[in-house]
Amino acid sequence: MCTAITFSAAGYYFGRNLDHEEVYGECVVFVPRAFPLPYKHEKLQTHHYAMIGMAKICDGYPLLYDGVNEYGLAVAALNFPGNAHYGDAREDKLNLAPYELIPKILSSAKTTEEAVALIKNINLVATPYKKDIPLSDLHFLIADKNSSAVAEPLEGGIAVCQNRIGVLTNNPPFPHQIENLKKYLHLSPKDAKGGLAERLNISPNSRGTGAFGLPGDSTSESRFVRAVFTKLNALTPDTEPGSVNQFFHILSAVEQVEGCVRIGDKAVRTQYSCCMNLDTGVYYYKTYSNSKIYAVSMLLEDADKGEIVSYPLLWEEKIHVENQKIQP
């Protein structure tokens, strides 16, 4: 259960909610140009574009969930259970394990167009990182400042769709999500007019009648519709702090409150939300238990060194008491 969006305001932004019932030690990771990227079926990549994103570091390797590179190309992986298909290695393709797709794109492509061209030659192989780390069923949102696309590994290969809306959730596949939007074309941020209200001269009891019927449940289809409606109608601030703040408010419209969705005895929640500025390479985030926004800037790191740099997520909420007395 995840939601990813793009947003244009003072700059161009890309980010997501990661909804899950567990955490795995995720951290913000900066991957410099000289950090060697090994591949299970391909040659070691010793030099590449620098990138920053959220990852679990395993044996010194960053298993990226999402990220942006130094040219402003961003990718996020979202759960795609039951639909993702990974096959066997092929001699005529670039063979990658699913977890290798994000680093491969961010290390090698500058734009969405270049990423799509690269994906056309990629074959995702059913190879886990380790035996005790199972494969995840994934699909991917890819974006730069000018366009976005969705890549979905299906039985016939990786299907790539242009994504003019800049929103992705989980199942069903992206074309079905777009088809489902046709049910909600009447939604509006303005109060409903005409119809029975006008003919019977009856006033509504509340504002917001133009959005009557906007789905509020936690399913992927409903979150997709809600994210599209919220993103398309959200005002666009003209400052960086205002834009980042608004971005997180859009994501909060589809946030998972702990306890409302349960998997056995575990509760799903939005473990973290992130926002990447594609112009500046700043990675903003906040966690479920800490609503303060934190930032890690790619520009403040040494892009030419060979070791990754990681920043553990800050989970503890710190509340500022405005009228607290200063101790002598």
Task: Describe the secondary structure blueprint for this structure.
Layout (H helix, E strand, L loop, with lengths): L1 E7 L3 E9 L6 E5 L19 E8 L2 E9 L4 E6 L14 E3 L4 H8 L3 H8 L2 E3 L13 E6 L4 E7 L2 E6 L4 E2 L5 H7 L14 H5 L20 H14 L6 H13 L9 E2 L2 E2 L1 E9 L4 E6 L2 E8 L11 E4 L16
Parallel strand pairs: 7-8
Antiparallel strand pairs: 1-2, 1-12, 2-15, 3-4, 3-18, 4-5, 5-6, 6-9, 9-10, 10-11, 13-14, 15-16, 16-17
Tell me what the structure shows.
With 328 residues, the protein is of the alpha+beta class. It is built from six helices and 18 strands. An eight-stranded antiparallel β-sheet has the order 11-10-9-6-5-4-3-18. Strand 13 (262-263) and strand 14 (266-267) form a beta hairpin. It is globular, with a radius of gyration of 21 Å. The model has no long low-confidence stretch (mean pLDDT 95).
